[in-house]
Design goal:
mainly alpha, three-stranded antiparallel β-sheet, single chain, 10 helices
Length: about 210
Amino acid sequence: MSLKRYFAWAVRTQIVRSDPTSVVKFVPKEATAPRHLSNEEESALVAAVNATGTLRDRTIITLLFHTGLRARELCTLTRKQVYLGKRNGTLRIIGKRNKVRDVPLNATARSVLGRYLETLPEEGPYLFSSEKTQGALTERALGHLITKYARAAHLADVSPHDLRHRFGYRMAEVVPLHQLAQIMGHDSLDTTMLYIRGTKQDLQQDVEKIAWI
């Protein structure tokens, strides 16, 4: 990149007549698959929050696992964005660049969210408020919350985005990619396709299935 920029400048200023780097192509960077939490890791994290966590914390982790929300989207959720029916439910999400999408809620998410809503005061605008400021829960505080229960579950370096990725991987097994992109708020199917790319662990397990010696 440095040589290309230098020779482009040299050609413009007529120091040289031609650019010898024009035929050099960059090596394309292959997009890597996001981290894929295993069934055991998800179960351990859920068990940890169920054992010692508050209803608020259990609701947060359940929603992240079952809706694939971004950290900012979860932190800024308000009552007005929630619809719960007897057999269905949705979250009206305001995502990147203020794009609005409806995220469906499955029975697990509806159940824990319904119980949690019953405990909230009527005057509070945010679903998950900060215990210190009473304002919206910050993304940093959310990260600390996930880290707390990950450590209790003996898991390393788990972030809110890892829970979003877990949702993406599980849904990609049963949902068409264009529908998954709509649920997760992806602008491009290229982003959604990362969830059907095998991780190193996936590929290792696949080749082990055909070991014949």
